[in-house]
């Protein structure tokens, strides 16, 4: 009976350890790409876009991140990050662009460039946040090609899946979001329901964490699971010892 109890405990511990390995493997794969996670995707609304910056050049630290805005956006307001300095790059439009309020613009912000005050180490992550006004274009996907420059080398996250192509097959996909219908008067609507229906673009965005805190959470979970496994083995050993002492 003691042998059977110990065998079951070891099997449970092995299964727990295997689950932890699978969780960490999935987390590592998800964090391999630069991605964007919006706090909302409602058409014609203001949203915060969080770009997760992981390692992108093997073991070389990141020195600059240049995020190109899609043509559908006219501007973006960077959130202050003490680890980076930031600047807007503007472009002159070929012809004036009329806005919904009736005014016109002759230039737009085409790129947001972050320069690291000290290189972001390859084993660390950071989050860069932009505030943008989303266009009134429900159903459309916005792509944000991002050039990650490192002390040695660079990675151009600008690939866009072609029709019929699996976006997960891309080596350096461009961060993207899909615009949903405007929210209803009660604050819910297409955006809320869309949270339960992932498209390749939003699935990719959801797979990328936005800060090192997520990585620390995964590590803590794995440590906790490992502790449970070791505790199970110790409990089995103490139970066996007690039964042997009772028998004598």
TrEMBL record:
<dbReference type="Pfam" id="PF07987">
    <property type="entry name" value="DUF1775"/>
</dbReference>
<protein>
    <submittedName>
        <fullName>Nuclear export factor GLE1</fullName>
    </submittedName>
</protein>
<feature type="region of interest" description="Disordered">
    <location>
        <begin position="161"/>
        <end position="209"/>
    </location>
</feature>
<feature type="signal peptide">
    <location>
        <begin position="1"/>
        <end position="32"/>
    </location>
</feature>
<feature type="compositionally biased region" description="Low complexity">
    <location>
        <begin position="181"/>
        <end position="203"/>
    </location>
</feature>
<keyword id="KW-0732">Signal</keyword>
<feature type="domain" description="YncI copper-binding">
    <location>
        <begin position="33"/>
        <end position="179"/>
    </location>
</feature>
<dbReference type="InterPro" id="IPR012533">
    <property type="entry name" value="YcnI-copper_dom"/>
</dbReference>
<dbReference type="InterPro" id="IPR006311">
    <property type="entry name" value="TAT_signal"/>
</dbReference>
<dbReference type="InterPro" id="IPR038507">
    <property type="entry name" value="YcnI-like_sf"/>
</dbReference>
């Amino acid at each position: 009976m003691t042998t059977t109890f110990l065998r079951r405990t070891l099997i449970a511990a092995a299964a727990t350890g295997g689950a932890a390995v699978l969780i960490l493997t999935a987390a590592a794969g998800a964090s391999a790409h630069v991605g964007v996670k919006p706090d909302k995707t409602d058409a014609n609304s203001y949203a915060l876009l969080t770009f997760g910056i992981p390692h992108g050049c093997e073991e070389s630290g990141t020195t600059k991140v240049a995020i190109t805005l899609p043509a559908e956006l006219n501007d973006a307001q960077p959130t202050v990050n003490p680890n980076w300095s930031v600047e807007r790059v503007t472009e002159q439009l070929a012809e004036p662009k009329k806005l919904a309020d009736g005014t016109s613009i002759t230039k737009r912000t085409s790129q947001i460039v972050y320069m690291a005050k000290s290189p972001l180490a390859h084993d660390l992550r950071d989050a860069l946040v932009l505030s943008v006004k989303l266009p009134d274009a429900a159903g459309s996907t916005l792509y944000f090609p991002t050039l990650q420059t490192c002390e040695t080398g660079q990675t151009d996250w600008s690939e866009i899946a072609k029709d019929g192509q699996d976006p997960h097959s891309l080596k350096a996909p461009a961060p993207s979001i899909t615009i949903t219908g405007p929210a209803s008067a009660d604050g819910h609507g297409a955006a809320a329901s869309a949270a339960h229906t992932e498209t390749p673009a939003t699935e990719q965005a959801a797979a990328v964490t936005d800060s090192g805190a997520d990585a620390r959470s995964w590590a803590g979970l794995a440590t906790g699971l490992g502790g449970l496994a070791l505790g199970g083995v110790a409990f089995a050993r103490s139970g066996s010892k007690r039964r042997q002492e009772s028998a004598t």
